[in-house]
TrEMBL record:
Species the sequence originates in: Ramlibacter tataouinensis (strain ATCC BAA-407 / DSM 14655 / LMG 21543 / TTB310)
Protein name, entry field: Glutamine cyclotransferase
Lineage: Bacteria, Pseudomonadati, Pseudomonadota, Betaproteobacteria, Burkholderiales
Amino acid sequence: MSTKTRSHPPQPAARPAEIVREFGPFAGVTQVHGVSYDGTRVWAATGAQLLAIDPRSGEVTRSLQRTGDAGTAFDGKHLWQIAESRIDKIDPATGDVVASIPAPGGGGDSGLTWAEGSLWVGNYRGRRIHQIDPATGAIQRTIESNRFVTGVTWVDGELWHGTWEADESELRRVDLRSGEVLDRLQMPPGTGVSGLESDGADLLYCGGGGSGKVRAVRRPRAQPN
């Protein structure tokens, strides 16, 4: 059974996002559609292949010939990749697709992340985030946004998502229950976000869309109430 929550104004003032590092552009890559992090490597979906990037050197250390036109996630063992209207579960050791489930947006999906046994999927033009069952793709919960959703990630119990609209992008922390916007980090003008993933600490990796880059943004720690 799905539940739906709505975001409520007013929103906090946006702060400038602190970009601490850029990776790429990479040879032959014209788009980054999704990003994830497996604990040691940043993964970037570039259309025809998934690239593994060493965040220390910025070098590509591996590639998998797998289609990826939107979000990427890592569940601790497998990669999950949106490919048009489906989500593929991929063995990163072999590159084999071991399972596939339908994507909730049927091709209108954007970001993807894994948290506590569920996949969380951004719906770009629907301005929504869905929590789905990774075994069936069934929607379990929906959170609404007032901006296009271009990436989603969880860290320390916080839900963040990326936006990209009217040539402006933000990283937003939202309340899981109400959808209320709790924090806003504004990317520099013309710097879009196409995919979002935390490193589990202080960085948020952001796909850079047509720049062919991946950017690392410093995550501010939530202030105690």
